[in-house]
């Protein structure tokens, strides 16, 4: 047996950070969602994605659904959202063993392969790790492994040692020199994986350095996050603290808070650095204690948006936050950990019902609706989005593993 396959078998569910550990993590008796409820949501998701599959053109991947044309909007393989549809298929295959889902995932994967050479985007974690990462995790196919390592090498070419960060956008919109967005925390898991699997510490060192720089500069005293920090590319000096998708520079864009929560929870799992756990808890507390968080815990698109409560919710922010809180709840047995679990359960329950859950056969086959891509850009406002589906299904898969007595913990 190939050594990489052996490592894959040993680490099992490494991508999501799942391992069997006794005597720690969430007490199964604390779990309030019934196994039948969780399974029902996943089965419904499978039904929807089989409908979605029939609405996608060849050679492209779904992005959203147009309420005007009543059609699925497809996207090219360079979009940051390109990997989520395939990643969701792999999660649903993991749950069901349905070979039709695996076949569709494998058929669409080659659409993304050329992105392994891309040095023009920081989003290779989203594009490749959510798709090829899940594929390799569940199959051990070394062709997928090779794609992932090549992509990781491409990603670190965007790292600037003076700034101590990975550059987010090449487009500066006429006002930035070296923009770094909080979303970039989500691509660090890919680099941590690459270090573990290749034995080359460089990827993980860059991930840690980037996380430390973000921790230093992105967060306010109340532990909310700016969206964009602009750096001087030669000195690393902070030039601007802005937003691009939030309501205002000083507001708390909901999905940005979710990215930070997920990112630092993951970084603690992968490194055991206490400062990352502390930061994840700070962000979680900011979200859960915010006076503008609705009772169903699905946030408005920005915590400080104009017009609350008469503005849009963001189901994608709710799904990302729920998945992150599930993992965060396993890193302790105190009252805060219990609260994180209970909040995640509320979010999952809310997303699994009207108005967020799509009725069977509706919206082209998407699972969730009422997400917001970019409100200031008037782009993808109050529509289904592939990443909302991905993190919602991930949250359900994580919950199933908790029900099975497994915890979300680092896999090495």
From TrEMBL:
<dbReference type="GO" id="GO:0000272">
    <property type="term" value="P:polysaccharide catabolic process"/>
</dbReference>
<feature type="binding site">
    <location>
        <position position="183"/>
    </location>
    <ligand>
        <name>substrate</name>
    </ligand>
</feature>
<feature type="binding site">
    <location>
        <position position="374"/>
    </location>
    <ligand>
        <name>substrate</name>
    </ligand>
</feature>
<feature type="binding site">
    <location>
        <position position="259"/>
    </location>
    <ligand>
        <name>substrate</name>
    </ligand>
</feature>
<dbReference type="InterPro" id="IPR010905">
    <property type="entry name" value="Glyco_hydro_88"/>
</dbReference>
<dbReference type="GO" id="GO:0052757">
    <property type="term" value="F:chondroitin hydrolase activity"/>
</dbReference>
<protein>
    <submittedName>
        <fullName>Glucuronyl hydrolase</fullName>
    </submittedName>
</protein>
<feature type="binding site">
    <location>
        <position position="243"/>
    </location>
    <ligand>
        <name>substrate</name>
    </ligand>
</feature>
<dbReference type="InterPro" id="IPR052369">
    <property type="entry name" value="UG_Glycosaminoglycan_Hydrolase"/>
</dbReference>
<comment type="similarity">
    <text>Belongs to the glycosyl hydrolase 88 family.</text>
</comment>
<feature type="active site" description="Proton donor">
    <location>
        <position position="183"/>
    </location>
</feature>
<dbReference type="InterPro" id="IPR012341">
    <property type="entry name" value="6hp_glycosidase-like_sf"/>
</dbReference>
<keyword id="KW-0378">Hydrolase</keyword>
<dbReference type="Pfam" id="PF07470">
    <property type="entry name" value="Glyco_hydro_88"/>
</dbReference>
<dbReference type="InterPro" id="IPR008928">
    <property type="entry name" value="6-hairpin_glycosidase_sf"/>
</dbReference>
<feature type="binding site">
    <location>
        <position position="255"/>
    </location>
    <ligand>
        <name>substrate</name>
    </ligand>
</feature>
<feature type="binding site">
    <location>
        <position position="123"/>
    </location>
    <ligand>
        <name>substrate</name>
    </ligand>
</feature>
<feature type="active site" description="Nucleophile">
    <location>
        <position position="123"/>
    </location>
</feature>
């Amino acid at each position: 047996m190939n050594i990489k396959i052996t490592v894959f078998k040993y680490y099992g569910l490494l991508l999501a950070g799942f391992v069997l550990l006794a005597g720690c993590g969430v007490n199964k008796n604390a779990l309030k969602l019934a196994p039948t409820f969780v399974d029902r949501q996943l089965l419904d998701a499978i039904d929807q994605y089989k409908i979605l599959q029939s609405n996608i053109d060849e050679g492209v991947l779904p992005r959203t659904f147009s309420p005007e044309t009543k059609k699925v909007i497809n996207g090219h393989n360079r979009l940051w959202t390109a990997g989520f549809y395939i990643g969701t298929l792999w999660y649903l295959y993991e749950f069901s063993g349905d070979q039709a889902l695996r076949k569709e995932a494998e058929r669409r994967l080659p659409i993304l392969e050329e992105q392994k050479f891309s040095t023009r985007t920081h989003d290779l974690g989203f594009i490749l790790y959510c798709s090829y990462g899940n594929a390799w995790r569940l199959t051990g196919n070394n062709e997928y492994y090779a794609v992932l390592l090549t992509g990781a090498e491409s990603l670190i070419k965007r790292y600037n040692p003076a700034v101590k960060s990975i550059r987010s956008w090449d487009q500066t919109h006429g006002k930035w020199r070296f923009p770094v967005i909080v979303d970039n925390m989500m691509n660090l898991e890919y680099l941590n994986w690459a270090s573990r699997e290749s034995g080359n510490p460089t990827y993980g060192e860059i991930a840690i350095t980037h996380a430390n720089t973000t921790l230093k500069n992105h967060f306010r005293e109340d532990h909310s996050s700016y969206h964009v920090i602009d750096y001087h590319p030669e000195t690393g000096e902070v030039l601007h603290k802005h937003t691009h998708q939030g309501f205002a520079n000083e507001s708390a864009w909901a999905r940005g808070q979710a990215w930070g929560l997920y990112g630092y929870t993951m970084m603690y799992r992968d490194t055991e650095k206490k400062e990352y756990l502390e930061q994840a808890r700070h962000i979680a507390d900011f979200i859960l204690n915010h006076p503008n968080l609705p009772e169903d815990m699905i946030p408005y698109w920005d915590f400080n948006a104009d017009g609350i409560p008469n503005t849009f919710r963001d189901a994608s922010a709710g799904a990302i936050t729920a998945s992150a809180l599930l993992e965060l709840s396993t890193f302790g047995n105190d009252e805060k950990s219990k609260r994180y679990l209970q909040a995640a359960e509320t979010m999952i329950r809310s997303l699994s019902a009207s108005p967020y859950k799509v009725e069977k056969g509706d919206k082209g086959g998407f699972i969730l609706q009422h997400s917001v891509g970019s409100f200031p850009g008037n782009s993808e406002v109050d529509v289904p989005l592939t990443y909302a589906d991905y993190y919602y299904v991930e949250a359900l898969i994580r919950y199933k593993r908790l029900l099975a007595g497994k915890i979300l913990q680092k896999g090495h």
